Amino acid sequence: MRKRAKIPHELFLTNLIGNHILLFVSTLGMASHNIVPVMSVPVISVAILGFTLWRAQRARRARRRDDWYVMAHWQVAARFSRLFIGMLALLALSAAFAWFGYDAFGMRKETALALVGGVGMLPTMITMLVMIVIESDVLHQAAHGRLPPWIVRRFPPPDGMELQLPPGG
Q1: Does the pLDDT of residue 168 top 60, yes or no?
Q2: 3-state secondary structure at position 128
Q3: Global confidence as pTM
């Protein structure tokens, strides 16, 4: 049960660390020659985030497939996936505004890059780092049979189930 509860967090951390940090940095050097490897990062990310949301919804609807504990951990990963999707949308929106401002209104290149960097990239990177720390903690909780208190309040356990909440919960 604990191994299955770790899967959504391992998947999410693989997306953040392996895909958005390691793969992105390694393909960035090739961007001037070939953009395809760099574009694999958002494609992989959308696939992983989409699978996480789909799997969490499936686990919530069909509790017979997953026991409650595993379902709850899929819900935790889905919540962070939705937050990350929101941050990626903010990044895309800031890039679109910068491109539109540069193309249609003659915005200086430096101003457009500052808009993308300050409004899009910086908040996304900070959110990624914070989510890596939080997801690592939740992965540790999954390995030890614990859950964050907010998920227990949102999805109450079945009657007669013993829970271990982290300190302060």
Answers
A1: no
A2: helix
A3: 0.87
